[in-house]
Amino acid sequence: MIHADFALRHAGQLATMMPNEGDPLGRISDGALAAREGRVVWIGEDRQLEDQVDLDGDQLDAAGACVLPGLVDAHTHPVFAGSRADEFAERVSGAEYQAQQSGDRGIARTVRATREADAATLLALTEARANRFLVNGTTTIEAKTGYGLDLLNEAKSFDVLRQLAARLPLRIVPTFLGAHVVPANTDRAAYLRALMEEMLPAFKAQAVFCDAWCDEPAFTSSETRAILGRAKALGYQLRMHAAQLAPGEGPEIAAELGARSADHLEFATPAQVKALAAAGTVAVLCPGANFTTHGPRPPIEAMRDAKLPMAIASDLNPGTSNSESLPHAMSLACVAWGLTPREALLGATVHAARSLGLEGRAGCLQPGSFADCVVLDVETPEAIPYYVGVNRVLQTVAGGVVWRPW
Question: Phi then psi for 155, rounded to 5 degrees?
């Protein structure tokens, strides 16, 4: 007998995301799973569970609802203070995002508000966002810093993420984004020195990834190569904001350096897409930010042709995508870009997990994977994007524990 401390039973369709018999979602009808100490130890048809599993713990009856792995959000900026709702209103009226980044506006405004917030306030704001991720079925996030932009305030952001991981079951993969922008009223050369000589070494023990934004008005191609090259030498894994606002070398740099992900990619060329695919990099697409900045559609057909894995992310941030809802991002990817619902679902699970180095553990359900799953009131897993802007999550399970909001 297999010993377990948690079981989920009677899933009408249990989407394991492990392909079987021609079904890329690996569905099990009237499915069940059992877990012990936060990991799946058994999965199969519900009628087999009692003969094979010795359960000493809680069980959750899905009552015929659909069940799939906890969603994986591979691009978020959750640690910030302040609002930029007025900038959203300006863009709706025709203002361009780039024009909002001058002086103390745009990202610089959020940096100022985040620096001014004390640690307790910043933790409370971020914890509320983390709860909203869980409410919407997300159990793993990549979480960037990048609104502190000096040693003291980036450390404050990492401390928030560390405390958050201890308080909530949301799995947090931390990313150092000191290369977000050069802070306002700061000498560029001096900031680059501080970033590469002080901050990158200081935060290696706290971050899995280093990210850099290779785009106007952030960092040039040569600066990005230097920053990420230094990060790689220090042992960081790499991610990159690339080709979001204009054509550039960002995707090529991501491929050259073996980045786990290249994100946004609205202006990526077919040649760059092929290079990313050859490098094993995942394209992390951010439809929420694209939608509010009126950006062009990413080269989806080129990505399909190159078999480049496409992850879908919320890109939670205060400037362009203030949403913790991956299902909403999935809907946007389908409606605005023409992704199929199945592509969007794979993007919010399997491909997102791969971009974080969590393939086989997150974004899927199999023995050994995290016991993270979501119970949804939908006809099939592919129907999630159909419910545009509506949260159909009934229960979120994280680490084999049924999560209760707040």
Answer: -60, -40
Of the candidates 294, 283, 212, 211, which has an alpha carbon nearest to the alpha carbon of residue 245? 294
Structure tokens given for 168: 């909530």
CB 356 within 8 A of CB 174: no
Quick check: 349 and 364 in contact, CB under 8 A?
Answer: yes
Q: What is the DSSP code (8-state) at residue 44?
A: E
Q: How many CB atoms lie within 10 A of CB 406?
A: 7
**For the stretch 244-264, what's the b/e string if a residue is b when 16 or more beta carbons lie within 10 angstroms of its beta carbon?**
bbeebbbbbbbbebebbbbbb
Quick one: 179 and 43 in the same domain? no
* 220, 326: one domain: yes
Report the pLDDT value the prediction gives residue 168, as an integer from 0 to 100: 96
pLDDT at 269: 98
Q: Check if the beta carbon of residue 133 is closer than 8 Å to that of residue 324.
A: yes
Are the C-beta atoms of 189 and 116 separated by less than 8 Å?
no
The string of pLDDT tens digits covering residues 340-363 is 999 999 999 999 999 999 999 999
Let me know whether 23 and 112 are in one domain.
Answer: no
Q: What is the CATH number of the domain that holds 161?
A: 3.20.20.140
How many other β-carbons are positioned within 10 Å of the β-carbon of residue 389?
A: 10
- What are φ and ψ of residue 365, in 5° steps? -130, 115
pLDDT tens digit sequence for 187-215: 999 999 999 999 999 999 999 999 999 99
One domain for residues 66 and 78: no
The tokens 């990505």 sit on which residue?
303
DSSP codes, 25-46:
T-EEEEEEEEEETTEEEEEEEH
pTM: 0.97
Residue 56's domain spans which residues? 2-70+364-402
Report whether 111 contacts 380 (CB < 8 A): no
Can you tell me the distance from the alpha carbon of 38 to that of 172, in angstroms, rounded to the nearest whole number? 15
Query: Under 8 Å CB-to-CB from 100, ≥6 apart: which residues?
Result: 87, 90, 91, 106, 319
Number of domains in the chain: 2
Across all residues in the chain, what is the average pLDDT?
96
What is the number of residues in the chain? Answer: 406
Distance from C-alpha of 88 to C-alpha of 16, rounded to nearest angstrom: 38
Q: Do the Cβ atoms of 327 and 387 come closer than 8 Å? A: yes
